[in-house]
UniProtKB/TrEMBL annotation:
It comes from the Bacteria. Belongs to the peptidase S58 family. InterPro entries: ArgJ-like_dom_sf, Peptidase_S58_DmpA. This is P1 family peptidase. Signal peptide: none annotated. Transmembrane segments: none annotated.
Length: 359
């Protein structure tokens, strides 16, 4: 029996321990799993309306820019989202971006004519170890399928964009978590995280502060080899109901790196490590004739609780991605084992230490 997942930090989680604990946020997946095709699309929606007409504030933190995402430049400049956030594999970014553009045009026929063009936002990781990425099987229908499936319940692990992803030579994928923060003068707020985990070298893996990677490498009988380069990536999304502007959200996104580092990442040369944070506290109208919102922003001096929640929820989401993933066999018979299955063979006292409770 696999151990319970350790709870990271001392802040409580929301009801679902998911990014959807932030009211209005929904997540959907489309999973392609057949033979050499092990991939998919995941979509995160900030609210139920038209994101082109009612944009949400956002900030980006590029911790290491070895990636092929689309749309980040305009988010960094204007500080708003105009589409849902889509996750997929590297070679499927163009197809998903086109799907987002077509979706916006269907809702707003003057987009690109009398109205400005839309900024599609697609993040990627390379799932080519398990997935035959050259086949480029992801199409517009898969984005729309994930969009239509978006809801408050979030499947995790080997699903959606996470289907073919690997972390620490184990099965990676989609993970999510949340933390609630209450502080004098700041009120009660929720921070939720969702990650697409596809990074890490096994000897460096840490779980709740415990260095377990070397033992897992021995368990897997990994052959001795020269030190491997870090070639993976991770996308970290943060949502909050706190009223923050784009500058503050960029600062919140930067704290995702603290949670990432705790798991054993050193942001290697070949790793694309990107974080984005958005707020659902208000929306910014696309049309200039509509009034801008009058928002009482949270004071900078009250951000520490949110920063802690961001770091803890990202670390927790990464653990959820590893724990909830199931082993996958993909391209050319390549296999990624599941962490939960490996831990079944560990002694009880060792598992108890991972949970930080008495044996």
């Amino acid at each position: 029996m696999a151990p319970a997942i350790p709870h990271i930090g001392d802040l409580p989680s929301g009801r679902r321990d998911a990014i959807t604990d932030v009211a209005g946020v929904t997540v959907g997946h489309a999973t392609l799993a057949e033979g050499d095709v092990q991939t998919g699309v995941t979509v995160v929606c900030a609210h139920g309306g038209d994101p082109y007409q009612q944009r949400v504030p956002a900030g980006v933190a590029v911790l290491n820019g070895f990636g092929k995402s689309v749309g980040l430049l305009q988010v960094e400049e204007l500080g708003v989202l105009e589409t849902p956030i889509a996750l997929t594999n590297t070679f499927s970014v163009p197809a998903v971006a086109q799907a987002q553009i077509r979706e916006c045009i269907a809702l707003n026929p003057e987009c690109g004519r009398s109205l400005p063009t839309v900024n599609p936002l697609v993040f990627e990781c390379n799932d080519g170890f398990l997935n035959d990425i050259q086949r480029m099987v992801v199409r517009e229908e898969h984005y729309l399928q994930a969009r239509a499936a978006a809801g408050e319940a979030v499947a995790q692990g080997s699903v959606g964009a996470g289907r073919g992803m690997s972390s620490f030579a184990l099965k990676g994928g989609i993970g999510t978590a949340s933390r609630r923060v209450s502080a004098p003068g700041a009120g009660l707020h929720t921070v939720g995280a969702l990650v697409l985990a596809n990074y890490g070298l096994l000897p460096h893996l840490r779980i709740a502060g415990h260095a377990v990677g070397a033992r897992l490498a021995t368990q897997l009988a990994a052959p001795a080899a020269p030190p491997e380069a870090e070639k993976g990536s991770i996308i970290m999304l943060l949502a909050t109901d706190a009223a923050l502007d784009a500058r503050q959200l960029r600062r919140l996104a930067q704290r995702a790196g603290a949670g990432l580092a705790r798991t054993g990442s050193f942001l290697g040369h070949g790793s694309g490590d990107i974080a984005l944070a958005f707020s659902t506290a208000y929306t910014v109208p696309h049309r200039r004739e509509q009034p801008m919102p009058e928002v009482a922003l949270l004071h900078d001096s009250l951000l520490d609780g949110l920063f802690q929640a961001a770091a803890d929820s990202v670390e927790q989401a990464i653990l959820h991605a590893l724990w909830r993933a199931r082993a996958v066999t993909g391209r050319d018979g390549h296999v990624r084992p599941a962490l939960a299955e490996l831990l079944r063979d560990w002694p009880h006292d060792t598992l108890a230490k991972l949970r930080d409770i008495p044996a």
